[in-house]
Design goal:
Length: 307
């Protein structure tokens, strides 16, 4: 069920695996240590990826589908079709409405119910049995223990056997053989301890910068400190601060971000996947479709084939 959109990015993981025997989704233990955000909108999600051959040791998620894009007008299905494999899902309970009125939020509440969006993702995966997504549930707002249990129950009911249980990080081929397509990280330690289907929260390098030059400087500093030992996100998201908003009352995050995409894209194209201390993993950004960032990030995986 793979189409030809975005040059075949709808099924890019499947295609890439024809060239590599084993891809691991994240670094294994013993990989270089420490280091350390997300987004969304009415359908705003992000991408994930895969890794590298076992012989490389730690893998790179950011370079293998390292795309996460938010603040989109695209539906979830359209984002997945465009190659996004890491979805940043920020969940909030809205006081208005039903007792279990869970929505996604990014600065403002979205109209999308959590259950509906998760079902849309599941239906897409059923049509693309060899594509794998990484879902990051985090930045919860107004969530009680009962609401967490309700959300986790929804997740398990919707995805079922697609969920990869927490444990040793699998290769894509292992996921294929088990019929598993979803790794779900959940930023609530109590919930993770109760449900083997949930993985711990993923570190996010968020620069919180208005200027792209300052953001890249921050990311390069984080790289110089050494990557985390597991999955991690490098966010190329610009952020409006109060000073910027007051100086540009008619501007928006979109008008801030779009002129900077070529500069940010140039940095992305210079990144390398792999186990090295300065290698990237998941790369996230805003406004998918406004530039070639998704395809640029996916193309980073070709560096794995070049040795």
């Amino acid at each position: 069920m793979c189409g030809g959109r975005e040059g075949g990015l709808e099924c890019w993981e499947t295609t890439f695996l024809t060239c590599v025997k084993h891809l691991q989704l994240e670094p294994r233990r013993g990989s270089p240590d420490p280091g350390r955000r997300g987004s969304r909108s009415s359908g705003a999600q992000e991408s994930g990826s895969a890794g590298i051959p076992r012989g490389w040791g730690p893998a790179v998620l950011g370079a293998l589908g390292a795309t996460s894009f938010t603040l989109q007008v695209l539906t979830v299905t359209e984002q997945l079709d465009a190659g996004v494999r890491y979805l940043d899902l920020r969940v909030a309970h809205m006081e208005e409405g039903s007792e279990r009125n869970l929505h996604f939020v990014h600065m403002v509440y979205t109209t999308a119910l959590v259950e509906d969006t998760l079902t849309e993702i599941s239906e897409w995966l059923e049509k693309h049995p060899r594509e794998v997504v990484l879902l990051a549930c985090r930045n919860f707002e107004g969530m009680t223990e009962d609401l967490h249990e309700y959300l986790v129950t929804c997740i398990k009911n919707i995805f079922g056997d697609m969920l990869c249980p927490r444990g040793e990080v699998p290769t894509l081929r292992q996921l294929w053989s088990r019929g598993q397509q979803v790794l779900l990280s959940y930023e609530d330690e109590t919930s993770v301890s109760r449900h083997v289907e949930l993985w711990p929260g993923i570190p996010y390098w968020w620069g919180n910068q208005v200027k792209p030059q300052d953001l890249i400087r921050y990311l390069e500093h984080m790289k110089s400190c050494g990557r985390p030992g597991g999955l991690f996100v490098a966010g190329i998201n610009l952020t409006e601060n109060l000073e910027y908003i007051l100086a540009h009352p008619t501007a928006s995050l979109r008008t801030l971000t779009l002129p900077s995409l070529p500069y940010l894209g140039a940095w992305v194209r210079e990144q390398c996947p792999g186990p090295g201390a300065r290698c990237t993993n998941i790369i996230t950004g805003d406004f998918i479709g406004a530039d070639s960032l998704v395809s640029d990030i996916i193309r980073l995986n070709q560096k794995l084939l070049q040795g």
